[in-house]
Amino acid sequence: MFAKLRRRRGNTGAAPRPGAGNAGYLPETPLDGGVISCQVHDEMGKLLPGALVTITDRLNQQIAHSETDSYGSFLATVQPGMHKISISAGGFKRKSARIEVRVNQHTSLGGVRLESDNSLALPQPGVWTFDPTHTEIHFVAQHVGMSKIRGRFNSFEGQIQVAPRFEDSRIDVVIDADSIDTGVNMRDTHLKSADFLDVENYPKLYFSSTKFHQVRGDRWLIDGAFTLRGSSSNVQLDTAYLGQRTWQGPGFDSDRRAACRATTSLRREDYAVNWQATLAKGIAVVGPTIDIELGVQAVLEQ
What we know:
Blueprint: E1 6-9, E2 34-41, E3 52-56, E4 62-67, E5 73-78, E6 81-88, E7 95-101, E8 105-113, E9 126-130, E10 136-143, E11 147-153, E12 156-162, E13 170-176, E14 180-181, H1 185-192, E15 204-216, E16 219-228, E17 231-246, E18 256-267, E19 286-300
């Protein structure tokens, strides 16, 4: 499962860090602890950054928890003893093993290859329509440089046209600007005004995709254009595909459903949303960017 464990005696910081070439070095191994390292790869042998590595002790207490770096590498200093290491990444099967860490020694797992999770098969070709009761479009804005305002849009339509080659698929979303909801009526009224969304003249917001690109596993980048107040600008959705399944039960009628999560950021200046007020010392009331979060469930049309 894992490559054969390799142990090194205590070092002086001259050992190269896994995956980092000559640019990085292992920390000095403490006299009362040990070092664990590994490098994670996908099923094709490519480095896998962002994989989650968790180490627990014999009492099942978490003692280390971190993501692999841009080289797919992980390194942690822990107390000696028998530990369990688990490695997971979206779109891949979890891999676990027991390891022994000894005092003042470096235990290297070497290269660890994760296998694809076949349960995350891509949606079949066809037209998939957003289920509005199980789909959410949220946004987050910085407020006076010290807190965040969260809101949502309550009315929208979306459709995914899944092509035989998934990379050729397309997503179109239409949002009713008047449905913006931050939970404060006075603030919502201001956001609907010409200072921001200008709902009277631009009642709809649009997103249309232009390209799908798989990064790794369940991670996709979706390029497209977002239109607000009649101005369009290119955006990129960082998307995690969550799989598909057939739901049975009241209100579902054995629907075939697929789900994903996606995030992106919009710059207000790209859409001429330039209203601004400042507090003392020039602190802006509203930040220059808006973070968008989508949680989508789509149903295959029969």
